Fold this sequence. Notes:
- The chain is α+β, with helices and mostly antiparallel strands.
- 23% of the residues lie in helices and 21% in strands.
- It is built from 22 helices and 35 strands.
- Strands 1, 6, 9, 22, 23, 24, 25, 26, 27, 28, 32, 33 and 34 form a 13-stranded mixed beta sheet that branches.
Amino acid sequence: MKQFLALLLAFTMGLSLVACGGEKAPEQASSQSGAATSEVVLEEDEQPGADAPIAELKTLNGKVYGEDYTALYQQFGKDVTIADVIEDEETGTAYIVRDGKRHTLGLDFLSRAMVYNTTVPEGGEWADENDVYADWWRLYITRWNQMLPEIPLYTNEYYDLYNAQIKGVTEFPTNPYWTPAQALIDWTSEKKEKNIILGASTELSGKFRFAAFGATSPGSSDHDVQKLITGLGTIAQTVDGNYVWNDTVVAEHKEVTNEDGSLTYTIKLHDDLKFSDGSPITAKNYLAETLVFSTPVGAQAASKDHMAGMKYVGFEEFNVYTGAGSPAEMPLKDADGNEVKDADGNVKTIKTSKVFSGLRLLDDLTFSATIDAEYLPYFYALTYADFQPQPLGLYLDKADIKDDGEGVYLTDDFYAMNGDKYALASHIFDGAWNTNNDYPYSGMYTVERWNNSDKSVVLALNPEFKGDYRGHKPTIEKVVYKRTVLQTQLEDFKSGGIDVLMGVTGGDSTNEAIALADSAPDKYVYTSYSRAGYGKLAFRADFGPVQFPEVRQAIAYCMDRAKFAKDFTGGYGGVVDGPYYSGSWMYKEAVKDGMMLNAYATSADTAIKVLEEGGWVYNEKGEAYTSGIRYKKIPAAEMDERDITFQSKDGSYKTTKVGDDYYMPLCLNWYGTQDNDFSDLLMTGFLKNDNLSTAGFNVQYTLGDFNPMIDELSQAAIYGFYQGTPLYTCFNLATGYNSAVYDYSYNLTIDPDEFDNYSLFYIKDEADAYWFE
């Protein structure tokens, strides 16, 4: 059973999570109001295939993947071209006709097709792969707008404010894809200390070596530090967010398409690459991280299977190998640890292999990677050749990487056990969180000092760093990265406590920053750019009321997003109606092609209408709703434990059982971050929203720090705070697109084996299910 690519948001696209508030966002994108229903009924005489019945949409709750249903893309996806897709002319909803039925294309299908199904159909209207990608992208954004995995609340202009002693900031400015942490390579410091102090609103955690360790997306500040201390990748992100071969690192590269459809990249490194301690960087260093996080040892360390090598040939067999005593075959298990059986009741098995056949160590400076044909063609195929060097001891301790001619493997001591745990799991965990000089660094800087008390880090110049993809090297001797508090950030800046105030946003803060710079241009400088991203109300959309699309839609109808954006940005921004950057080329193409999006104009009446259509028509006793908090009747077979025990934060409203059915309260438990304007504005725009009360919602809240909030969102102790009881369904966060690569493939999966590890929005679009007869 194939495992699918799912981490490109975190590693390729560079998506990061940030705390909304004193944080960095573009002008309002135009959109058209339209229906926001999940299923579209077409007029018989309007569309091709309109005479075919619509495939039934059924809840996935209580059903078994692989027995009751599978993913629509798994069933038909590889054989579908953009020419097969039919669009409803009123709403833009896409569908295909298969088996005599119309199948609506859900978020999972569209996100995968967008990057894997870009072959140009013969004789069609599409000139090239870009045209095909743009069409898939438009259909994906349209579906996303209908399903609302999260609610964008503002997008804005970012203003970066600088101490004028930091030179080069206007000649080499930041942009949506090039943050100060990257741009400073071209800046100089005329300060006496020859340093630069960066300030950002998102708290550092100390997880700098691998910022996404144990999570789906990294925290933005941790990710910034990772960019500063990790470098010399084989593929480099350019200033404009695209990807190119890093000629500073790669001496030669070759690309060969094999007879079986797989693709092999052979990469030869320059012989003068060094870590910060002067030790040579070799091909083994480039293979280490991919190998480690493709094993059960790495999965145990992270409490999450990052499946870093899933796109390479031989991954599946290598991924289930458990060490010297590993059997030749292993029973295939689902996400819950249950054995998977075929139609005859026989347990399915998968072969194991110590050798990762798709990765080769050819000599000290040369290695190759063969991409499984399952992942080809791929719109961003070059990113498959991206490898980052890591010191071997960081994750391997004394284990080694070898290749006897059939593929790379890890020596037996890597898999050694300590009781029922892998001995190296704790070492790998410590490695991901390592903040000292036990192991060297490959990036522009090294960690000199991490202060866990005030959450600041001091970085020192790495004298061995060869340069970025252009050959540029930094000259600023030290970088200090610290958290800023919105209420005091400008005073901190004026007093010299910060040299770069990153991502100033919000009307008052922006006006103050501009006024300060204009009043003393010899002391202060600022630059600005439109944000590629947005502030949002995010959801844990797989339990509680927010798992139902009509609830998310009703929340959007109750909120005045335009007013919220104006109040928050002070006119330096607006609203977007989907997960896009209005400056991107595909957005411009979509607008040109007439993309229709629902702006969710504020209306309590419309909110009530969609809630009633969704079945929120009861009180807690199962009687007809008249006033107060709405409840929804849900059959017991469709409830999981989290839904059965769901309740409001204060316990006043709980899921109740009446007869054989459960009734869930329309309660929203919101976790917001403290000390920022975004949370403050949500207190009135969301918590005390009269429209929500009128529609039958109850909203309760907690304000806390960023890392505990991420634990609650993930329902896992990534930062050690989660106590194991699911409670919160709503979160204020922000999304930033840190590269021009736009790929959500498999982050909207409905496959339980992938969902827990890779789902970005924790949403399952029921249109993505293909039901077995």
